[in-house]
Amino acid sequence: MRQPNRAIHRERHTTPTIDDLIHDLNGATVFSKIDLNSGYHQLELAPESRYITTFSTHRGLRRYTRLNFGTSSAAEVFQDAIQQVLSGIEGARNVSAHFCARHAVFERLRSKNLTLNAKKCEFNKSSIEFFGYIFSRNGFSPDPKKVSAINNTSPQFPRDTVLSYFNPHNAATIIVEVNENNGIPKQNEKPSVYCLRVNIFIFTLYGAKFNIITDHKPLERIFTNPAARSNARLERWAFKLKLYHFTISYSPGKTNPADYLSRHILATTHPSTASDQAEEYIAFLADHTTPKAMTVSEVKQSTRADPTLQAVIEALRNNTWHSTFETPSPLVNSQDLHALYNIRDELSVSDYHDLLLRSHRLILLHALRQRALHIAHEGHQGLTKTKQLLRENIWFPGIDGLTKKLIDTCLACQATVVQQPFEPLRMTELPQAPWQQLSVDFCGPLPSGDMLFVVEIVPKLDRILSVHGILPEIKSDNGPPFQSHSFAQFAQYMGFHHRKITPEWPKANSERFMRTIQRTLRAAHLENKNWKQELFLFLRNHYATPHSTTGVSPAELLFVRKLTVKLPEVIPTSPSRSQFADIDLKKNEKMKEYADTTAKAKPHSFQVGDTVLVCRKRVNKLS
């Protein structure tokens, strides 16, 4: 209706104000309120005017035959029609007169074929709510629902109806919110009245000098800087305010009493709106697609409800494995029972938690297995890392196969895994203590810019650990940030040795970990998830996952403690440095042997100081 409204001539009819209604209802003792059933639609449009309401639908062109809400003059037309229908009927003061007036209203409505909405009509009330006020034989008062925010504030307002009296001889101040509608006039730091718009104070402020305090900082400069050039809208505002003699000063919003209620919102019990329902739906999806942390108590409850685990626990306590295995209950899962029977010597029962354990790992039933798999795969770690994280705390029959199936069917993993050719390795010597060597690299560009990643050599920990103090050596590639003079000065100032890797050989500086980070970010982008949140999920699991070389998680090596993840844990373990150092040495030797054999690597014969040929970087097909 935007185009038709430009051509429609609005009808000008006087609409009664709330002040007129208060005056007319003075002295009344009984009240009734009626509501028309779809009031606008009860007024029929003239046939020659219906064409301007035509609109297009999937079933063709349609047009209104009744007054619709989109018409610009609908409110005035409807108000005038109702006034004509009810003209001549006076309001009543007592019950008998009220009954006669109400009967006359019904007869008028019946004669005009106007129908009422019975659910919204109220009759013969001693008090009635209308337009934000409560009308009764005692007069009128604000609706408690409209002023509940003020009544429930900590510093209560005075109970007197008059907050303070206006004195035209005193200086006045108007405090306004950031929008143009709200204002509070004050004298001697006491509010006089609460209102909408500045023009309502014309009778009290016209000709007087007053001050306007606002939390809108640009407004102060607009009106106080004569050289400022404003747009036409602001110029019109300034022209309207030429009637007043005022000054403008700025006050922060937190000290602005006109903005008090917006900063002290009360809990509402109103029915949810469409936006609230949309937020609830989004929260429902997030709640049911993101796996929640699994607690030991939850595993305990599930174990008590699983017949197979209960049968195994009973067999362990009573040493009745033979009868349990030979004649199982019909409710027992035979495959799970057979798998648990094969490892019966490794099983135990936690008397404190009443849980079935394999060593220190919890044994889960079917109801929790998929959930545990999804928790371990948060951050999209690979197959080996996911299985290692699972085996740290839990076990169940077929754990390897189910983990592989989950990762093989993970769309994000399949779309982001890149196969790289295997290259010969040159193993880095393991430092003697944590925080002795550090590898740094840039991973980006990301949506928020480049991100600097730091990898500690001993646990291969990926995180910026600037709070842990200065270390002897930092290793990086030959990128421009690390080749700069400022970085060299920083290294000299901090007192650490900057070791740069061989050019064009990124594997010497944790490049494999950079690929893992990028795969996690691409998976987050593919699944339309927040990449920062997914990165934190990956890092959380990475910190707690035992490394394939040392057999110990990075957190245990650097912080000498295990990190708590969303998987349940019963028996914590602490690492032994000599143990993981020997494991690291053996793993590195085995890794080097396999890599050199696969790549057919041969030791070089040149010595330091020999003249050699250097492969130049190829810039075109002829270089």
From TrEMBL:
This is Transposon Ty3-G Gag-Pol poly. PROSITE patterns: INTEGRASE. Signal peptide: none annotated. Keywords: Endonuclease, Hydrolase, Nuclease, Nucleotidyltransferase, RNA-directed DNA polymerase, Transferase. Transmembrane segments: none annotated. InterPro entries: DNA/RNA_pol_sf, Integrase_cat-core, Integrase_H2C2, Retrovirus_Pol_polyprotein, Rev_trsase/Diguanyl_cyclase, RNaseH-like_sf, RNaseH_sf, RT_dom. GO terms for biological process: DNA integration. SUPFAM superfamilies: DNA/RNA polymerases, Ribonuclease H-like. GO terms for molecular function: endonuclease activity; hydrolase activity; nucleic acid binding; RNA-directed DNA polymerase activity. It comes from Paramuricea clavata (Red gorgonian). It comes from the Eukaryota.
